[in-house]
Design brief:
Elements: H1 2-25, E1 35-39, H2 64-76, E2 81-85, H3 95-104, E3 108-113, H4 120-128, E4 133-137, H5 142-149, H6 154-167, E5 172-179, H7 187-197, E6 201-206, H8 222-235, E7 241-244, H9 255-258, E8 271-274, E9 279-281, E10 293-296, H10 302-308, H11 311-314, H12 317-321, H13 323-326, H14 331-334, H15 339-342, H16 349-353
Parallel strand pairs: 1-2, 1-8, 2-3, 3-4, 4-5, 5-6, 6-7
Antiparallel strand pairs: 8-9, 9-10
Length: 354
C-alpha cells in the first residue's frame, strides 16, 4: 500500500510541476504559492556554529507598514501559510502584530525560533495572535546544544519554550534539528527526550554548506548519511513523525523506505521567500545575493515577481547546465537536488552514497 501511495503522490506531484513549468514557459499565469516565508531579520541573540544566516547584514529591515502591505497582497492570492524565520524572529518587536494581521487576513502563520526569548508573556502573545505553528530548534543533549549555540543557557531556554508552547496548546508544535557530525550520535537520546515532552513532529535537516557551517566536521559524509537514514527508517512513526528536510531530495534505494511521498525543492513552484529588505528569492537558506533575487517588493508587486521570476527553477536549469545531472537516471526524481547544497557541492545524493 505504501508503494502505491508513493506512486500516486509522485504522479500528482509530477503533473503539478509539469503544469507550472509548461504554463510559465508559454507565458500563461502560474498558480500562487502554497506558502510564503518571511526572512524577517538577521539579528540574533545567539552565535551558533552551524548558522547559515550569518552570511549577510542589512542596513534596514522592512517596516511594519511595508510588511503588512505585502501581507495584504499575498493574502488576496489565497495563500495558505505565512511563516517567519531569521535570524531570531522574536527580536522584531512588531512580529506578533504582523502575524495577527496575517491571521486576520485568512492565512495560517508560523514561527521558527531558537526559543531563547519565548517566556510566559511571549507565549501568551503568541496564543493571542493565533499563531498556527511554532518550530523550536534543539540540536542535541544539553552540553552539545549549548556548545553548538555557544550559550550555556540556550538548552534550558529551548526546553522552557517547548513546555510553554505545550501549555498554550499551539496547534502544531515542532522541534527542528540541524544534523551535523557533532550531534548525529545523539539522535537516539534526543528522540527519547522529545517523546517525554510529547512532541509529535520532528524535523531533521542535514547541515547546509553556508555561513559558518562549511567545515568537514559539520558535513555528513556517506557513513554519516547512512547512519541518519537508518535512524529515520528505524524510528519514524514510533511515537513521533520524523520529517527529513527537502535539502535531501530523492534518496535512491532509501527513498521509499523513508518517505511516503516525493519531496521536491519547492522554490518557485509552491513557495518562495521574502527577504529582510523586501527582495524575493526562492529559499530562505539561499544567500541574499543578486543572482538569487527575483525582484524587490519595494519596486514591484508580489504577483508580478511570482509570475515572471523563478525561471531557473521552473525551467529545470540544473538538468541542462550540469552534465552529471543531464545524464543521471535519477534526474526525473531528484531534478538536480537542492540549490543551496549545490553551493558546497553536496547536492548529489547519488554521488554521496556511492
Amino acid at each position: 500500500m505504501s508503494n502505491l501511495k508513493y506512486a500516486l503522490d509522485k504522479l500528482r506531484t509530477d503533473f503539478y510541476l509539469d503544469g507550472v513549468s509548461g504554463r510559465y514557459g508559454s507565458g500563461k499565469p502560474v498558480p500562487p504559492p502554497s506558502y510564503v516565508l518571511w526572512d524577517c531579520t538577521r539579528r540574533c541573540n545567539l552565535n551558533c556554529v552551524h548558522c547559515g544566516a550569518s552570511k549577510e547584514t542589512y542596513s534596514a529591515e522592512l517596516t511594519t507598514a511595508q510588511i503588512k502591505g505585502i501581507v495584504d497582497e499575498i493574502a488576496a492570492l489565497k495563500i495558505a501559510m505565512f511563516a517567519v524565520t531569521g535570524g531570531e524572529p522574536l527580536l522584531r518587536e512588531d512580529l506578533l502584530d504582523v502575524l495577527a494581521h496575517a491571521r486576520q487576513r485568512g492565512m495560517k502563520t508560523g514561527i521558527a525560533t531558537n526559543g531563547f526569548l519565548l517566556d510566559r508573556p511571549m507565549a501568551k502573545r503568541i496564543a493571542e495572535a493565533r499563531v498556527h505553528s511554532v518550530q523550536v530548534s534543539l540540536d542535541g543533549t544539553e552540553p552539545t546544544h549549548n556548545e553548538i549555540r555557544q550559550n550555556r543557557r540556550s538548552y534550558t531556554a529551548a526546553m522552557q519554550a517547548i513546555e510553554l508552547l505545550g501549555e498554550i496548546r499551539i496547534p502544531v508544535l515542532a522541534v527542528a534539528t540541524t544534523v551535523t557530525g557533532r550531534n548525529l550520535p545523539e539522535l537516539d537520546s534526543l528522540r527519547e527526550l522529545l517523546l517525554r515532552l510529547g512532541i509529535k513532529l520532528w524535523k531533521l535537516t542535514a547541515v547546509m554548506p553556508i555561513g559558518r557551517a562549511q567545515s568537514a566536521e559539520m558535513s555528513l559524509d556517506r557513513e554519516r548519511l547512512v547512519s541518519l537514514f537508518e535512524f529515520v527508517r528505524k524510528n519514524n512513526g514510533r511515537g513521533i513523525h520524523i520529517h527529513l528536510g527537502e535539502n535531501l531530495t530523492y534518496l535512491g534505494k532509501w527513498e521509499r523506505k523513508l518517505r511516503s511521498g516525493p519531496v521536491i525543492c519547492p522554490a518557485g513552484f509552491t513557495a518562495c521567500c521574502i527577504g529582510v529588505d523586501g527582495n524575493v528569492r526562492g529559499c530562505p537558506e539561499q544567500p541574499d545575493t543578486a543572482d538569487n533575487r527575483e525582484g524587490s517588493l519595494l519596486e514591484r508587486s508580489f504577483t508580478d515577481i511570482w509570475q515572471h521570476g523563478f525561471g531557473r527553477y521552473r525551467g529545470r536549469e540544473m538538468l541542462s547546465a550540469d552534465p552529471n545531472c543531464s545524464t543521471c537516471e535519477w534526474k526525473s526524481d531528484c531534478f538536480g537536488g537542492c540549490w543551496v547544497m549545490r553551493s558546497g557541492n553536496r547536492h548529489c545524493i547519488r554521488s554521496a552514497l556511492a
